[in-house]
Amino acid sequence: MGSINLRVRFLFMKKAERPETGILYVVATPIGNLEDITFRAVRILKEVDLIAAEDTRHTKKLLNHFAIQTRLISYYREKERERAGELLEHLQAGMHIALVSDAGTPGISDPGAILVSLAREAEITVTPIPGPSALTTAISSAGLDCGSFLFLGFPPSKSGQRRKFLHSLGGCDYPVVLYESPHRVQALLADALEVLGDRPAFWARELTKIHEDLQLGRLSELLTKASSQVSRGESVLIISPDKVEQATGDTVEDLLCWYRDHSGLTLKDACRRLASDLGLSRSQVYQLALKIWQETENDEGDTLPQNANQEDPA
Ligand code: SAM
Fold this sequence. Notes:
By secondary structure, the chain is an alpha/beta fold. It contains 13 helices and ten strands. The site of S-adenosylmethionine has 23 residues, from helix 6, strand 7 and strand 10.
């Protein structure tokens, strides 16, 4: 009904008064804290003729907060194609439309792509209004080397498929960024630990919200935390690559230095990995490792075990 009225309004405009076509604005909105919205986003949301929202009730709260009275129309995943067609007609009739999702940037694990591509095909101007995304927010606070990263959105929800998916990431040289819902994050951590090993990871929970919680640790530590928490919240998980796979060096000593400085492994674990990778005896590698680890012994009370004299305790 609403959409018919809007179309009628434009059909009854004198042709000369009608703009050629409207503009589709793709507007990022907060992922929790309502203050995380740009001045430009607020202005555009006020000025457009229509806001296409994933969940109109959810977006209404944001609009109320900023006293925005623009009309809302729903645009959600299940009706994305059908709604995109209707919205395209409005754009062609000259209406300016803002596309928003429930949180963050539309099109990132959210509806949006179909409307944007239809608009492009129809030579409608598409203007992004950048702002928050859980993806960039998590990366910015992780402190991991994320110059390059692999973002894969939500992993499969069923355990078998999720494990297969995680297996496929085993050799990835980049941090892998995943989204997960509150009730599945513990299962994801458990599967990731089992399939990928105890890698360093970053778990960003409830970003920008009251219970924001940022945890850097090994997957095993994060899993322990998740197991003890009742409410796990919306999550972004960043899993570091297996540094041991990337070890570089011409000699065993070089490789040990690399493990010591880059892998985060204890002396014992580094020896175990290196001995098995190179087919050497563990005690041989252990004697070399002792010397190398001793060089940094005093730096940070490093990982030398108490009985690190002669024997490989493993
Ligand atoms: N388009 C959004 C964006 O730009 O980040 C993502 C939408 S996706 C449907 C929702 C997922 O994003 C959540 O399940 C969670 O993984 C992540 N997410 C959204 N808000 C978050 C927050 N405040 N803290 C942590 N993760 C969040």
